[in-house]
Amino acid sequence: MRIESGTQQLIDEAAAVLGKTRTEFMVESARLHAIDILLDQRLFALGGESYDAFADALDRPPTPGPKLTSLMARKPSWQK
Fold first, then answer.
1. Stated pTM of the model
2. Region (Disordered): which ranges (predicted)?
3. In this predicted structure, which of 25-29, 32-36, 42-46, 52-56 has the lowest mean pLDDT?
């Protein structure tokens, strides 16, 4: 990877503190960041009233509008 020398030095110092090579440090850091990003997209926590409101909304979805009703009534192209 091409990175600025100051950034490379910072990474090298952090890796050395952990007893890792630059590559090991970069791979582990990228892996952990990737996990965080994916969890942010899939996992969320709600407390008390917020959870109750969320669960209630899931239990009572809105009635389908005309566009959804029309879409669901169409015959799929593979069945035509």
1. 0.53
2. 57-80
3. 42-46
Tokens 């209630």 belong to residue: 56
DSSP string, the chain: ----HHHHHHHHHHHHHTT--HHHHHHHHHHHHHHHHHHHHH-----HHHHHHHHHHHHSPPPP-HHHHHHHHSPPGGG-
Residue showing tokens 């015959």: 75
Site of tokens 């990003």? 37
Q: What is the pLDDT of residue 61?
A: 87
Question: How far does the chain reach from its first CA to its final CA, in angstroms?
Answer: 52
Q: Residue 75 burial (CB < 10 Å; 0-12/13-18/19+)?
A: exposed
How much is the pLDDT for 43? 77
